[in-house]
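Sample intake sheet
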Amino acid sequence: MKEGQSIEKEALNKQGQHWENTFTKKTNMFGVEPSIPAQKAAKLFKKEGKKKILELGGGQGRDTIFFAQNGFEVYVLDYCESGVEAINKKAEEMGLSELINASCHDVRDSLPFADEVFDCCYSHMLYCMALTTSELEFLSDEVKRVLKPGGFNVYTARNTNDSDYGTGIHRGEDMYEVGGFIVHFFSKEKVEHLAKGFKIVDIDEFDEGSLPRKLFQVTLKKK
């Protein structure tokens, strides 16, 4: 292994603690309103009669709460303990605990669920975290494993048209560290590469935030 590669991996592994520290300091870092991607996904899931959602990288729960308020059963994973605690606290305060099951998990490891148990999977900017392409391939296979046939995987990721792409510290592949956060920027080719075993239903490009960030919302259906 080259020296640069080991330094890069060390930087990637430190992101968990960086997010933990950030969530502890900012209890509603992304606000409390549901994201536009979650609202769009919920419409699709309702239209298709889907009920049981796996949410990956739930953060502090703004989309998790929204899904539960709309009658979905949500199993949410995040690798920050403070995020999971925030979700469970909000679920209890809002009387949604029966619909929300939140736990701590690193998506670089196998998902802690049996095969074909979820109707759909949803994640907002989890795929563009500090995950290598090989780790994303593994995650995509795991999502496919836990989805029922015909299940949907909807995810968002910052893309290579984003103004931050190519800036900051290069951490390998299409990953750049900007303001302490490592982002893996997606091209359409990467989306297609990770869609093995799925039908690509839609790749929608949209803006979010004041910068603004440029993202893809990818909708996949398990074959």
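Comment: The chain is about 35% helix and 30% strand. The first strand starts at residue 52 and ends at 56.
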